[in-house]
Model the fold of this input.
Amino acid sequence: MREIEKLQAAAAHLRQELPGTPELGLILGSGLSEAIELKDERCLGFGAIPHFPRPTILGHAGQLCLGELAGKKILVQKGRVHYYEGRTMAEVAFPVRLMKLLGVKRLIITNAAGAINEGFSPGDLVLIKDHINTIPDNPLRGENIEELGPRFPSMNESYSPRLRELAVRAALKEGLELKKGVYLAAPGPMYETPAEIQAYKRLGADLVGMSTVPEVIAAVHSGLEVLGLSCVTNMAAGIGHSKLTHEEVLQVTAERGKALIRLVRAIVREL
Ligand code: HPA
Done:
């Protein structure tokens, strides 16, 4: 079965089970799914959607929810799959491509990240202005899905300047500090070594995480307007004092999740 046929089958199922056309998509990362409340929310477990990949790790619920946020119809992906879980890039990109088929035009992607930039602190919210991919694969490798986008898409302005401006204004209005940075995707699942973090710093990265970039590549390929937001959960290896743990990452996102969602709501209101 071709990838586009799997996507079309999943889209047909979702149109039936969660009727209504979402204009916006939102992907919630580690520990962030609990913080959001949608009006008239209807959810479907990943397992109930044909061909949809299922996450394997703690802190990543697996549901697609359709509802209203700040008066706009939005499709929220609670939980995601990652490269480090052993998934193919087609699986990692599947939810984003599905959103495109369902009518989504703009996509907000969130994540938990480690800070390489020493001007950042745990708990900071950061607007992603660009990315660096060090995952040794991407969802566009292989046969191009012509129905979605071109063979050689530009990755210039992948993070929509228009949405970034709007996010800065929304943060100001909410009284939330919003920093800006370059996100580097590392393959994981191990956290980085201090030497790797020093190398990434020289490459120009402010943040490091294990997600987002494959999804952004798929989104840009299919013509979605993208906004990326990180919640800093820790200082990256060798920058901070302690050994990193997944529990620490989940704890900070649980604490700062509300602020991140408040920012997302304020952004959606302005759209
Ligand atoms: N490294 C990679 N991924 C992460 C980190 C980190 O320090 N923190 C949260 N996700």
The radius of gyration is 17 Å. Residues 234 and 240 are 7 Å apart (CA to CA). The chain has one domain: 3-270. The helical segments are 3-17, 89-101, 161-174, 194-203, 213-221, 246-270.
